[in-house]
Amino acid sequence: MLLRREDEARRLLDEAITRHPDNATLIANLGLLEARLGDHEAAIASLRRAAGLDPSIAGVWKALAASLLEVGRRREAEGAARRALRLAPG
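The chain above was modelled as a monomer; its predicted structure follows.
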C-alpha cells in the first residue's frame, strides 16, 4: 500500500515539475521522496537542482547532506551541512 502511495506521489510531483520546472519546493520534495525510496543518487541530483534554484532553503541543504552521507561522500556532505546551519542555526 505504501509503495503505491509513493508511486502516486512521484507521478504527481513529476506532473507538477513539468508544469513548473523552476519551482525549487517541488523539486526538493521530489528529492526527499527519492531519498525515502533509497535512491540517493537521484535525490542528490534533485536536491542540487532545488538548491540551485533557491539556495536559501535550509532543509534542502540538510537533506542533501544526508543523501551525500548515505553514498559515502562525506566531504560534500559536510559542506552541505554547514550551508544548512548557516541558513538555520541551531
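The chain has one domain: 2-87.
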